[in-house]
Amino acid sequence: MRGKMARVAAALCAGAMLLTGCGNTGSGQNAVEKVRLMVWSPSEDQSQSSGQWLQTSCEAFAEKHPEWDITFVYGVADEATAAAAVAQDPEASADVFLYANDTLTIMTDANALAKLGGKYADEVKATNSEALIDSLTLDGYLYGVPFTTNTWYMFYDKRVFSEEDVKNLDTMLEKGVVSFPFTNSWYLPAFLFRQRLHALRRRNAGGARR
Question: What percent of the chain has pLDDT over 90?
């Protein structure tokens, strides 16, 4: 039971979780549990220029939990690539990592995620919006801790689009060219997939063309 608590609590420092091996040293109430955690994040989160955010967060977590003797092993994987790597070989993958919520079923199909429950799930649900919780919930089980939301911004030329035009993306696409920064998006695969479906729907609208 203590091992399971360690796995779930450690997940709070980064955002999502798998399994990890644990062992006890000592005896009685003063026993210290040895935990080895492999943690993945994008390279920028571990760089000197960003203040080594990942390492700092993990070390701060370890200081708050002296009941665990944690050895952190760091690896590099961004949100776009983590799911494929984890699903391919869950046993060799990270215990804690960040992932895009639209890849949830890829990992649950591979039985690669632990379910968050008890007081930990209660805390996550109490501190996040229903929409965020829903995006990490499948068949009634919570599979992660929301880390950040996906926020999109669109800049447009007021000489081309009116205030009424910008209320509807279809109208903008019909009236002008909409571009996307292909070199600045870890979410690109999902974005392109949605855009392709959108294009197919437009082509088949009303049965005019197939």
Answer: 35
